[in-house]
């Protein structure tokens, strides 16, 4: 008989903890999420397709005397290429052996089957647990395509949850993740607590003794949880403890929980073991663990977070996206280096050709405005999403949408985690010199403090603030900031040549004259990142820094931007000297005003010349 070959997609690690009292209880290796690894047709024929999990005596002996009262089955409706459009009834079974007779079965009629959801099947004949191993699974009859769901966390699958069969021929199929089956146990002595830490999002490098945040996925399979204490160990040595309180983690729910902690006693990169030590203030068994890598070192420096923002004036949702980003950042703007790319489905007068490199590399679906990247890291595990035709789904790359209300909390989580991340690269200086009329030389200096994997590279950007803009959908007038605006756009970066002592120095000459920029509003940004043009998820930013253009005392006057025009404010008016066609004066919030009897303050001046526009920020 022909068999379909399954392809690996995701894996999950399961951490189980229990403590006794009366409550409902879930037995499962799944983390509660639903995913389909690959659209899988079984051809023109149909088959009875089955999946099962094995529960050993170690799982069942502590539950002796309780009953399995229902079974929950997660199903997915294939893919657009291989939809499940032909199938029959679903039959749940509980067996001692996969090839043996069933202890009990329960049918779910075809009309009641729900795809892309969990289906709970209540057993007319519940099974009393006697401590002996069991197989719990299901068969969906006469299916033309793969309906079986697997969980979607990318960790380590459990071999006991990889059983699969075509027409009753069972075999293990590792590489999918864990099959989505849950057994619901009830009884007078069901354990009160059953929690699984299925995944974490944590910094990779922290400084010894400094605080950082860790985001844990906690799957609650029993009583409501109000507080959790975790312990991190290196071998037998405890390196951190943390409590998350004021929670309300309901039965059979998967939740993101933030823990604040600090790390001591770990030098350089180590594998730490995370244990759940207390639930609702009560001690629990610490025999199960979740392992993850963490570098806790003195050889690191505080970092800036590099925010790359996709926006444009024709984008009606972009003002809302910008507001969410500002709300998430809050008082931490001093920790952010921000650059805005005016592309992502729309372009405008501030779009430059170099920004379109994003579209080619990351793909237009990811870059649809309003969207963002933080340090070019894929934040899907922190909740980052991208839009589809009918929904939002976890992002496939570092870019994610900020177009919906939930994006604010996602960005807050990302920033809490990233603020605790330290950098192995120190950008020590951004020097600026003037080599001739309109010739700016930028020299970036720094040092690596640890061995860097991959290909470290440096990029130099210029950005401009205070540009007036009117949303073409009439949403609002606003001042445009952080706009990418550079004639030499080293986006992907030049590989860094480190000296023997780990230092580096890289210089670029940038021609400024004739571009119509407002020097007083401009920033020079330096970014050190990994360089890998074969993988969108392997270009993480190590560190970033920015300085105001010419703010280091070089004595260069703004007028090098356009030697034929001088713009200044005096006596309640903006004065323009030189050859030009027209002048418009705006307030800093983008409103056009008459250039007479101006109050003291800062104004944005647009000077239209023959072949370009000069934009300046001027104070009266």
Structural class: mainly beta
Content of β-strand: over 45%
Number of beta-strand segments:
44
In which range does the helix fraction lie?
under 10%
Report the total helices: 5
Mean of all residue-level pLDDT scores: 82
- Rg over C-alpha atoms, rounded to the nearest angstrom: 30 Å
Read across the widest sheet, the strand sequence of neighbours is 6-5-8-3-9-10
N→C terminal distance = 85 Å
Integer tally of domains? 5
Largest sheet: 6 strands, antiparallel
* Poorly predicted runs: 1-22, 473-478, 551-563
The CATH topology of the largest domain corresponds to Jelly Rolls
- CATH A-level architecture of the largest domain: Sandwich
Shape: elongated
The CATH first-level class of the largest domain comes to Mainly Beta
Give a verbal description of the structure.
The protein is mainly beta and 620 residues long. The protein folds into 5 domains: 16-186, Jelly Rolls (Sandwich); 195-298, Immunoglobulins (Immunoglobulin-like); 302-422, 3-Layer(aba) Sandwich (Glutaredoxin); 424-462 and 485-548, Sandwich (Immunoglobulin-like); 564-619. 6% of the residues lie in helices and 45% in strands. The chain is built from 5 helices and 44 strands. The strands form 12 sheets. Strands 6-5-8-3-9-10 form a 6-stranded antiparallel beta sheet. Strands 13, 15, 16, 18, 19 and 20 form a 6-stranded mixed beta sheet that branches. Strands 31, 34, 35, 37 and 38 form a 5-stranded antiparallel beta sheet that branches. A hairpin with a 2-residue loop joins β39 (565-570) and β40 (573-578). α2 packs parallel to α5. Residues 1-22, 473-478 and 551-563 have low confidence and may be disordered.
């Amino acid at each position: 008989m022909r068999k379909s070959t399954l392809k690996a997609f995701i894996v999950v690690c399961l951490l189980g903890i229990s403590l006794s009292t009366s409550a409902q209880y879930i037995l499962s290796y799944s983390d509660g999420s639903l995913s389909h690894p690959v659209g899988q047709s079984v051809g023109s024929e149909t088959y009875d397709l089955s999946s099962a999990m094995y529960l050993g005596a170690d799982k069942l002996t502590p539950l002796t005397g309780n009953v399995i009262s229902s079974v929950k089955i997660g199903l997915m409706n294939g893919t657009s290429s291989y939809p499940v459009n032909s199938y029959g009834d679903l039959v749940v079974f509980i067996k001692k052996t996969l090839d043996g007779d069933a202890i009990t079965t329960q049918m779910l009629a075809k009309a009641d089957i729900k795809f892309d959801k969990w289906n709970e099947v209540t057993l007319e004949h519940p099974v009393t647990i006697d401590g002996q191993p069991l197989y719990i699974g299901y068969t969906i009859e006469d299916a033309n395509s793969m309906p079986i769901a697997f969980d979607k966390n990318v960790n380590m699958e459990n071999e006991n949850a990889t059983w699969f069969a075509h027409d009753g021929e069972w075999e293990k199929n590792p590489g999918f993740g864990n099959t989505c089956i849950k057994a619901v146990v009830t009884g007078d002595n069901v354990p009160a607590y059953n929690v699984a830490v299925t995944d974490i999002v944590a910094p990779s490098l922290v400084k010894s003794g400094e605080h950082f945040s860790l985001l844990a996925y906690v799957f609650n399979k029993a009583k409501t949880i109000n507080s959790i204490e975790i312990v991190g160990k290196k071998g037998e040595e405890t390196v951190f403890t943390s409590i998350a309180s004021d929670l309300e983690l309901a039965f059979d729910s998967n939740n993101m929980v933030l823990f604040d902690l600090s790390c001591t006693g770990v030098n350089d990169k180590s594998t730490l073991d995370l244990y759940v030590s207390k639930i609702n203030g009560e001690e629990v068994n610490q025999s199960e663990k979740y392992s993850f890598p963490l570098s806790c070192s003195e050889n690191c420096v505080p970092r800036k977070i590099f925010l790359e923002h996709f926006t444009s004036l024709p984008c009606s949702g972009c003002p809302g996206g910008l507001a969410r980003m500002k709300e998430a950042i809050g008082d931490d703007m001093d920790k952010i280096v921000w650059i805005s790319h005016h592309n992502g489905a729309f372009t405008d007068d501030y779009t430059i050709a170099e920004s379109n490199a994003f579209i080619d590399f990351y793909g237009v679906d990811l870059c649809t405005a309003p969207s963002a990247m933080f340090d070019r890291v894929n934040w899907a595990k922190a909740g980052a999403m991208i839009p589809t035709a009918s929904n939002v789904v976890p992002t496939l790359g570092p870019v994610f949408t900020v177009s919906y209300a939930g994006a604010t909390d996602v960005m807050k989580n990302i920033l809490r985690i990233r603020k605790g991340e330290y950098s192995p690269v120190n950008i020590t200086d951004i020097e600026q010199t003037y080599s001739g009329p309109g010739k700016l030389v930028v020299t970036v200096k720094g040092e690596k403090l640890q061995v860097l994997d991959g290909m470290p590279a440096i990029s130099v950007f210029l950005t401009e603030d205070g540009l007036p803009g009117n949303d073409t959908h009439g949403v609002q007038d606003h001042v445009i900031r952080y706009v990418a605006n550079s004639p030499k756009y080293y986006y992907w970066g030049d590989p860094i040549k480190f000296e023997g002592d780990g230092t580096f120095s890289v210089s670029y000459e940038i021609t400024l004259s004739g571009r119509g920029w407002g020097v007083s509003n401009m920033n020079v940004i330096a970014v050190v990142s990994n360089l890998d043009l074969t993988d969108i998820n392997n270009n993480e930013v190590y560190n970033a820094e920015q300085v105001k253009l010419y703010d280091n005392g070089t004595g260069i006057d703004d007028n090098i931007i356009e030697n034929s025009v001088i713009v200044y404010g005096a006596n309640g008016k903006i004065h323009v000297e030189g050859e030009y066609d027209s002048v418009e004066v705006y307030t800093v919030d983008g409103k056009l005003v008459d250039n007479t009897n101006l109050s003291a303050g800062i104004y944005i001046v647009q000077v239209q010349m023959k072949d370009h526009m000069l934009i300046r920020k001027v104070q009266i």
